[in-house]
Design a protein that fits this description.
about 70 residues; mainly alpha; globular
């Protein structure tokens, strides 16, 4: 199975990944620290940076690969 970094996903897959995993505890912890550092992040852009920091990989449909 081919996997992708968040930045490599299509817009639709990014939205799906954000919808599925955007509220997980690890994501929220990093988001809080990032929002303190940077203001004005768009949610999807911020989620992408967080998912990349966590090293998460996704299917072409935005499902996280363990």
């Amino acid at each position: 199975m081919e996997t992708y970094a968040f930045d490599e996903l299509t817009g639709r897959a990014k939205s799906a990944a954000f919808g599925r995993y955007g509220e997980e505890e690890a994501v929220e912890e990093i988001a809080v620290s990032m929002m303190g550092e940077h203001h004005g992040f768009e949610e999807l852009e911020a989620a992408g940076k967080i998912f990349n920091r966590l090293g998460w990989r996704f299917t072409e449909h935005g499902e996280r690969v363990a």
